[in-house]
Amino acid sequence: MARREDERISGKVLDGPCWWSSMKTVKEMPEKEEVEIGRVVLINAVILAIPIFCSSHSLIPLSILKTVYKLCRDFLWNKKDGIKGLHYVAWVDLCKPVEKGGLGIHSAVRSREVMRAKFAWNLHTHPNSMLNKSLSASYGGDVLHAVPKRNYSSSWKILMSGANALCPIVRWKVGTGNVINILEDIWVLDRSFSKWPTFIAVVEGEFPALHFFIIDRR
């Protein structure tokens, strides 16, 4: 049932006017012009532009993204008149930056959390907004500390996905310390205490909040 649903969604996405127009432009492009511009540039600017944009604010099934990647691989390696060519380099390596030996092809799978991070950050930095209050009341807490569940709405899942990209790079600014988890939150340097190397076995939940150790704001 899930596979059939993915195929139905995939058909709608890949048969859409914007996607079909982009693919038609690529196929009708003269061979000389194609060589001048470069197939990698066309993949980034034309073929992957729509899936990357849609995946930043929609829950697109992974099967659809794999179908798009197959089209990209075929366009990159296949020869003229649909003759199949040899795939010399793995797709994962092609998606690496040029500085690391790749071709800089954008990956919708890897970049979707990063692109969704702006939504999660905007929600987190506006605690008094109507959207924040309604979502916090519905799902019980801040998006940066939310625990994923299957019955959550698509909107909340997208925000949680963006929060996953934020958590490793966001650090608490210590004030009262009432809501800072000493063990799991990042409030010293660039990682939580639970991820620091230690020889001591720390049991989760044995430490109070940070405010317990703050006396006269010190």
Overview of this structure, please?
The chain is an all-alpha fold. α1 crosses α6 and α8 crosses α10. The protein is elongated and about 75 Å long. About 5% of the residues have low confidence. The chain starts with a helix and ends in a 52-residue tail after the last helix. It folds into 3 domains: about 100 residues, no CATH class; about 60 residues, no CATH class; about 50 residues, no CATH class. It has 10 helices and no strands. Helices cover about 50% and strands about 0% of the residues. Keywords: Membrane, Transmembrane, Transmembrane helix.
Q: Proportion of β residues?
A: under 5%
Structural class: mainly alpha
Count of the domains: 3
Number of strands: 0
* Average pLDDT for all residues: 74
Keywords: Membrane, Transmembrane, Transmembrane helix
Short note summarizing the structure:
The chain is mainly α and 218 residues long. The protein contains ten helices and no strands.
Write the layout of secondary structure elements.
Layout: H1 2-14, H2 17-28, H3 31-37, H4 39-47, H5 49-57, H6 62-77, H7 91-94, H8 108-124, H9 130-139, H10 154-166
Helix pairs in contact: 1-6, 4-6, 5-8, 8-10
Transmembrane segments: 37-60
Keywords: Membrane, Transmembrane, Transmembrane helix
Characteristics:
mainly alpha; 0% strand; 3 domains; 218 residues; single chain
